[in-house]
Amino acid sequence: MHKKKKIYGLIVSVAAFILCLLFFEIVLRLTYPLYANYNTEMWKYASKMKQISYGDSCHSHLPETSMNLYGAKITINSQGLRSEYNYSIEKTKKRVILLGDSITLGWGVQNNETFSKVLENYLGENYEVINAGVGNYNTYCEYFSLKKYSYLNPDLIIVGFYLNDFEQIKYPSKISYFFIKNSYIYSFFFDKLSSIPRGHYVDFYKKNFENSNNQKIVEDSLHKISVYAKEKNIPLVLANFPEFHKFEEYEFYEINNYLEFLSKENDIQYIDLLEAFENVDPKSLRISNEDYHPNAKGHKIIAKFIYEKIHLE
Amino acid sequence: MIKKTFKFLKDYKKWWLTPMIIVIIVFLILIVLSIMFSKNSQMPFYYALF
After folding, report:
1. What is the CATH number of the domain that holds A89?
2. Number of structural domains, chain A?
3. Above 0.85 for ipTM, yes or no?
4. How does pLDDT run across A246-268, given as a tens digit for each residue?
5. Residue in B16, B17, B44 nearest the CB of A205
């Protein structure tokens, strides 16, 4: 009798635990606008607008999706690019393709405020700029992206580089992916846990950079991109975004020098965007106090600087 | 039926109450921690998914 009660008790405990979690899941879904922030919006972007391929390649945008995220509307066309229209294979204008991560995508800024759109306006009516930026992409993924969109025949390739491109992306297993992407509890937990300090951003980025395996992946990927560009006779540019916490007493000159060296080695034009932000207050460039992605002002500065540096026929 | 359910819940009170209290306490701890560190802006970009 005693043993039977214990078994029943355990079943009741598990059921109560599941019910309790379900209750919180419903509450968190209903009250989402009250606690939405950078982390939860990034989770929403990944779970509703991205997909994993589980092959050799990387995640990509879900075609034909549109969402308001962190105050900006993000529209993905049927080709998986941030654009309100599709690009035809036959081109009527010269094409510039931008490869990169959430900065290139234009996280937190409107479709027409992204540096790809501003650059397009600078270049004039004979050019179109294709924004192939995908959140959390690194150089490894950008090589796959370049091959994927090679059918669009770009006349110039610009690779946007940010410090976290040294980081390798870890994808969840199929089962945990299902729960992670559908669970508001997970998003809530992740957000709360990530607020607990785990180290300074300088140490985090430097540690990623100093990992020789990470460096090798960046080197190999950049080399592959440059080989592709040379074979097709397309000019290639590496635009290195600065870390947006502070520009004075900048902490990552070593990484900039390394990227400049890699660019030289691979015949890539190197653009150091840190120079573009000289005498600019970094606080005036943030999307918000918790999100250091560049805002519309930052995108304008990036577009203008790239426009002034690139050499087009 | 209702009487039986109430009796069952009463008999197993500690079994269903304990996990519920644990879940609530974990939620409360996380909320308190995130309020304590809400002004921490020295973090790199982390991703909840990918």
Report:
1. 3.40.50.1110
2. 1
3. no
4. 999 999 999 999 999 999 999 99
5. B44
